[in-house]
Amino acid sequence: MKLFFQLAVLFLFALALSAVFTTPARAVDSIGTATSTNMPCPFAGVPHGKCYKVTITGCAAGTFIAQVKLNTSTAGTPIGTVLLTIGGGGNFWYDNAATFKVPGNCGGNCGDAAAYDTIQTNFSDPSNSASEFAGWLTGSTTSAIGPRALACRYATLVNWAWTSLLQSDQTRLVCATGNSAGSAALAYALSQYQLGSSSGPEPVLKLAELTSGPPFSRLDHACLTKSKAPTDTVSCPANASVNESLGLSDSANFVDPAYDGELDCSGNTCNPDAAGQLQHNGQSSFWGG
């Protein structure tokens, strides 16, 4: 009887332990669906690319149009593929920014980078960019949504690139980098949409390089005034100080539109809507996930 009791206790303990390791600690968000058509590539940037207009549905705030540019390796069989997303609302091409270098547009100083395929994301509608003025952070004017739910657009676009451009090739290494608010899109994709997990929608990203994104990692700090937000000492550049406040301009242009779908400020003049998401004293407050 004693042995039976001990075995029963061990069984229940193992069952509980199994539940701990198989049950997510939080809800996992679902991606949407995407369809595409071919489109001409922009004149500037890396030549010889293939460009696509991608229609994203099933995410918050309705149908969204994005663009993708694929450039294949110039050094034979690629080592892998790197997804590139710029800052702000991500509504510009990565290879059009002077501060970023990509294979084919790095002055002959590419190093190993030339051995990778690149996929650039651009969260803007080429036919109506004004409708997506804040890129992937353009929310709804009828309901407060927020960056986490809107990051469904990025996660869905990455999944589309994996299935449509890379043919779900499990032998291919896939990495991604996002700058500033683009790092937030990537972080949400990893943490909320499981692009870093084999149980997620795929690809399983082998490396994620998040650059210049501290304010977007703590929106509760980012939306404070500079005098109230923490200041951090960083190692790149060495011993530089970075304040975690986004400031009025970035808050108005990128964070608040995710919640109210509007631009409430012009310069230093702000006109908050009825919900009061943006305050005129330089401090942004908002609701949502």
Short recap of the structure:
This protein is of the alpha/beta class and 289 residues long.
Description:
With 289 residues, this protein is an alpha/beta fold. It has two domains: 25-212, Rossmann fold, CATH 3.40.50; 221-289, no CATH class. It contains seven helices and eleven strands. The chain has helices at residues 2-22, 147-150, 152-165, 181-191, 214-217, 219-222, 247-260; strands at residues 33-39, 50-57, 64-71, 80-85, 116-122, 173-179, 207-211, 231-234, 240-243, 265-266, 269-270. The strands form three sheets. A seven-stranded mixed beta sheet has the order 1-2-3-5-4-6-7. Strands 8-9 form a two-stranded antiparallel sheet.
Task: Jot down its keywords.
about 290 residues; alpha/beta; 7-stranded mixed beta sheet; 7 helices; globular; disordered N terminus
Number of domains: 2
By DSSP (H or I, 4+ residues per run), the number of helices equals 7
In CATH, the topology of the largest domain is named Rossmann fold
Name the helicity range: 10-25%
Element-by-element helix/strand order? HEEEEEHHEHEHHEEHEE
Query: What Rg, in angstroms, do the CA atoms define?
Result: 22 Å
Instruction: Return the CATH class of the largest domain.
Output: Alpha Beta
Low-pLDDT residue intervals, each spanning 5 or more residues = 1-25, 274-289
Number of E strands: 11
| Beta-strand percent range | 15-25%
SSE diagram, text form:
Layout lengths: L1 H21 L10 E7 L10 E8 L6 E8 L8 E6 L30 E7 L24 H4 L1 H14 L7 E7 L1 H11 L15 E5 L2 H4 L1 H4 L8 E4 L5 E4 L3 H14 L4 E2 L2 E2 L19
Parallel strand pairs: 4-5, 4-6, 6-7
Antiparallel strand pairs: 1-2, 2-3, 3-5, 8-9, 10-11
